[in-house]
């Protein structure tokens, strides 16, 4: 994970946000901005309006109809736009996936910490050999087993 010197200054504290704002290169920030604007109603409406104006102007014959029917120049512009949009979206998606991974990792660490506190509290407040966690049933046993904390669910010797 990269975190730039300005990461803390932005007020971000979650590792995923530090990754998003702190360590982004210029290219990554541009990709995020461009894909964010591609995925907006403002862009769809503006592009639709531009298409209507372009076609109407060429049908009516403004500026000597610079792109007459079947609007080949307009098609070329859309092809170019699509050729750049796809890799930009992929770049932004990869960054999103990395942020999700960091977020999941952070959530897991926080949950593990909370579980450790809970276990310490349990050891302090319950008598030795207490089976209250084991009594919760197989679902709790399974959860604790995958977190490598099976000590609580083992039944004490008689
Ligand atoms: Zn207990």
Automatic annotation (TrEMBL):
Transmembrane helix is among the record's keywords: yes
Keyword Chloroplast (UniProt): no
Domain of life: Bacteria
TM ranges: 38-57, 69-91
Keywords: Membrane, Transmembrane, Transmembrane helix
Any coiled-coil regions, as ranges: none
Name this polypeptide is given: DUF1003 domain-containing protein
Species annotation: Actinomycetospora rhizophila
